[in-house]
Design goal:
With 268 residues, this protein is mainly alpha-helical.
């Protein structure tokens, strides 16, 4: 039976965890994994279909596309700490981006280790943070919220990483993630607007920047890896235009988006 390396390593805790296992432990883990896969195959199904995922909509007290600040899947939501009067990007990382912070820090850390440009590293650092506000079409939302403060190239990479996730690129080492079959269904096909956007991005001069975000995104869920925001302070200082009034209070077209994350409990 063939196995996909990345899901197997992820199930064991990542490459770092596997490196510390002795040969017997690795063999036992592989055998257990193969038996599990065999049992799933025998049951006739490994991934859900789109219809099965659709049937789950009315079984949950939340919608999958809602932002992390607005729902709790484990009991009630918690009271959020107050933000400073003139909040910076670092303040949002510490006080509002809790659900995605470690992942995007890992992504930026991996991009840095791989020798990526500072703009790609910054795009990796920011690419999923808007999920605190909303998850649906988060690439577009993320690009919009950052456009007043970053270069056009960084915003482009953030916007279009969402589309490129669904399309393999063997030349640059990107495979379609098994995770997406679990999230979207094994029979999922990108919607027409996503497919049209892919055709546009594939021929764009900044295609590689957006593609590099997906590459450094996919492998950034490693347990025990905890890079700190301070590691990227210089890059943020050079490439992020922090408004002196504070994010949410600078009168920009996206200030309301930042304020929605500052005060998600306000009913009006």
């Amino acid at each position: 039976m063939e196995i996909e390396r990345d899901p197997f390593l992820a199930k064991l805790g990542g490459e770092a965890a596997v490196a510390e296992m002795d040969s017997d432990a690795k063999a036992d883990a592989l055998e257990s994994y193969l038996m599990e896969q065999l049992n799933q195959s025998a049951a006739g199904k490994t991934f859900p279909t789109m219809a099965e995922l659709e049937a789950q909509i009315e079984t949950r007290p939340f919608r999958r596309g809602v932002g992390d600040q607005f729902v709790s899947t484990h009991g009630n939501v918690k009271r959020l700490p107050r933000m400073p009067a003139q909040p910076t990007l670092a303040d949002f990382f510490k006080l509002r981006f809790n659900a995605t912070a470690n992942h995007v820090l890992q992504s930026a850390n991996l991009a840095q280790k791989n020798g990526m440009s500072e703009e790609v590293i910054l795009a990796c650092l920011l690419h999923d943070t808007v999920m605190a506000l909303i998850k649906a079409d988060h690439g577009w939302w993320g690009a919009q919220i950052y456009e007043p403060y970053v270069s056009e190239k960084v915003a482009f990479a953030i916007r279009h990483h969402q589309t490129l996730r669904f399309y393999e690129d063997p030349e640059h080492g990107y495979k379609y993630p098994v995770l997406y079959k679990q999230l979207f269904g094994e029979d999922f096909k990108p919607e027409p607007y996503i497919d049209a956007n892919y055709q546009f991005v594939r021929n764009h001069k900044w295609y590689l920047e957006a593609r590099l975000v997906t590459i450094n995104d996919l492998y950034s869920f490693e347990p025990g890896v905890n890079p700190q925001l301070e590691q990227f302070s210089d890059i943020i200082g050079r490439h992020f235009k922090q408004p002196k009034e504070g994010l949410g209070f600078d009168g920009s077209p996206v200030a309301h988006m930042w304020r929605s994350m500052i005060n998600p409990d306000r009913p009006l």
